[in-house]
Amino acid sequence: MGEERRRCHLSPSLAHLSPSLAMIADAVYRPDSVEPSLAMIADAVYPPDSVEPSPDSVEEVPDSVVEEPDVDEVVECPRCGTFHGSGVYGSACYQARRNTRMCTRCGLLHEDYDIPARFLYAMDKFDCEFFIPDVDKLVMSGKTIILPEQVVEKLEEKKNKEDEPKSSPQGGC
């Protein structure tokens, strides 16, 4: 099939300005028309009739990683030095480390009550001997300590002393 091609030509005004540009333009050819053949479109759109599905010859490969059941072995933790399960950085390690810091007198973790003691009662740290004079009579509502009446009276006296204006010595200036 003989395709007829035409040469691209520069306009005469550009040809006299650049002879090398005229040579490049003479070397470029383009066909008269670009029409896709119907045979090419038919092959691209419709699959041939002779295609047969291949049988499943691929076998499933078993998992290479052996999954072990979750066993909570109690081992000595290198992080906190206590015996617990569920790994080094798990919740059991967190709870074990937290339990080691609990007060032996009252059974509370004082750092949980440091901020309320500082903001509510202007105390640097929670002191269980001040807030809980008798551990056997400790009353709690959730994690809230219900203060005994004698402790409330001590806190009110402390607040009243801080609120009194400090008397300054009267000098004769």
What does this structure look like?
A two-stranded antiparallel sheet has the order 1-2. It has a two-stranded antiparallel ribbon with strand order 3-4. The chain has a two-stranded antiparallel sheet with strand order 5-6. It is an alpha+beta fold. Strand 5 and strand 6 form a beta hairpin. The radius of gyration is 45 Å and the shape is elongated. The N terminus is likely disordered. The protein has seven helices and six strands; from the N terminus they run E-H-H-E-H-E-E-H-H-H-E-E-H. Among the domains are: 31 residues, no CATH class; 59 residues, no CATH class.
N-C termini distance = 123 Å
Overall mean pLDDT stands at 72
Percent of residues in helices comes to: 25-40%
Structural category: alpha+beta
The strand line-up of the biggest sheet is 1-2
Low-confidence stretches: 1-15
Q: How would the blueprint of this fold be written?
A:
Elements: E1 5-7, H1 12-15, H2 19-27, E2 29-31, H3 38-45, E3 75-76, E4 83-84, H4 91-100, H5 114-121, H6 128-131, E5 139-141, E6 144-146, H7 149-163
Antiparallel strand pairs: 1-2, 3-4, 5-6
